[in-house]
Amino acid sequence: MKANWEKTENNRGVLTVEVDEQKFSKALDQAFRKVVKNVNVPGFRKGKVPRPIFEKRFGVESLYQDAVEIVVPEAYQAAVEETGIEPVDQPEIDIDQLEKDKPFIFKATVTVKPEVKLGEYKDLEVPEKDFSVSDKDVEEELKKMQERQGELVVVEDGQVEEKDRVMIDFEGFIDGEPFEGGQAEKYTLEVGSGQFIPGFEEQLVGMKPEEEKEITVTFPEDYQAEELAGKEAVFKVKLHEVKRMRLPELDDEFAQDVSEFDTLQELKDDIENKLKEQKSQDEDNYKRNTLVEKAAENAEIDLPEVMVEHEIDHMLGHFEQQLQMQGVTLDQYMQFTGQEKSTIREQFKEDAEKKVRANLVLEAIAAEENVEVDDEEVDQELKKLAEQMGREEEEVRKLLQAQGGVDQIRDELKIRKTVDLLVSNSKNAA
């Protein structure tokens, strides 16, 4: 096999692969054995047609497609390894030569990992930032605990306020006609959550149970349903029920209910200590992230769009999982917020570009500084992971090996060690 890589533009190029006629002939043999199983020719049992008769009747060309599908993946992978390129996307395959008793030649147009020209990554400085714990921080955390212990109670009298949980019927009309997806019965909504289009929830404030009201809103110009975008709609709303959070008193009894402490002061002291631990971790993350960002900003990279799109795919998938944990699908989220998927993807783009750039720069620094991860370090990480999962180390190892996870752990450790290197070489190093 022969392989030749020719860069054509930025991070794209053409990999020309030549497979000798003997290897392609073997692929034709495999293709014949596969195809002939389903071939019927008068005078022969199904699947028992001799090769010469098959080729005379159907032509050897009828085997080419299957032979190509057999040869290309293996030959492409071998050519990638031989030329040392690092593809970041699936190749576009074009057949250059496909004839019997001649070498099979194909071209793979592919995007490869870009060259990284490192800038300054040592002696970087991290701006000072306050990570101290204030009384306000403690009070805010205590408030969250109080809200978690709160109880939703029905408001018999009174008006809807921000953060109330309401149950409503609604039906929307445009130019006097109802529209699809614009109605629901006994729908539960937290006022001020931003689930509905702008202006809807604000007009619920002040309503009383069993009151009916018409709410006028205008759909955003970029609303995902084009037939509704920019149009004024009138919603007929009936309020069935209002629930409001009733909070417990912040006293010693509260502390005893939510913790192992006897007094509220002891609980506050514990909150303060835990916040200090968290702030210390936040400070460490801040330093590490800032150094990575600075090193990435100082480097020169022509980011392949396909790498950014792959990262956006990953981020969007994670976002969908978060929504599902809240009982909301992505389609429902888009309907509530009036956004299209393309708009959401665009919102992720800047962060995706930063992440791809940072990863490429860290890989380049690791190579420049000869950062390596030995088997003992991987074993230690596997041991920690097994303890966290409550399973045997060997069981976890086999599970990860089957999924390629051990190599992923090695890569993550290398990145972590590379960031450690940035920290130890920074101006802020202790």
TrEMBL record:
It catalyses: [protein]-peptidylproline (omega=180) = [protein]-peptidylproline (omega=0). GO terms for cellular component: cytoplasm. It comes from the Bacteria. Its main location: cytoplasm. GO terms for molecular function: peptidyl-prolyl cis-trans isomerase activity; protein folding chaperone; ribosome binding. GO terms for biological process: 'de novo' cotranslational protein folding; cell division; protein transport; protein unfolding. The keyword Cytoplasm applies. Its EC number is 5.2.1.8. The keyword Cell cycle applies. InterPro entries: PPIase_dom_sf (IPR046357), PPIase_FKBP_dom (IPR001179), Trig_fac (IPR005215), Trigger_fac_C (IPR008880), Trigger_fac_C_sf (IPR037041), Trigger_fac_ribosome-bd_bac (IPR008881), Trigger_fac_ribosome-bd_sf (IPR036611), Trigger_fact/SurA_dom_sf (IPR027304). It is an enzyme of class 5 (isomerase). Keywords: Cell cycle, Cell division, Chaperone, Coiled coil, Cytoplasm, Isomerase, Rotamase. Consists of 3 domains; the N-terminus binds the ribosome, the middle domain has PPIase activity, while the C-terminus has intrinsic chaperone activity on its own. This is Trigger factor. It comes from Melghirimyces thermohalophilus. The lineage of its organism: Bacteria, Bacillati, Bacillota, Bacilli, Bacillales.
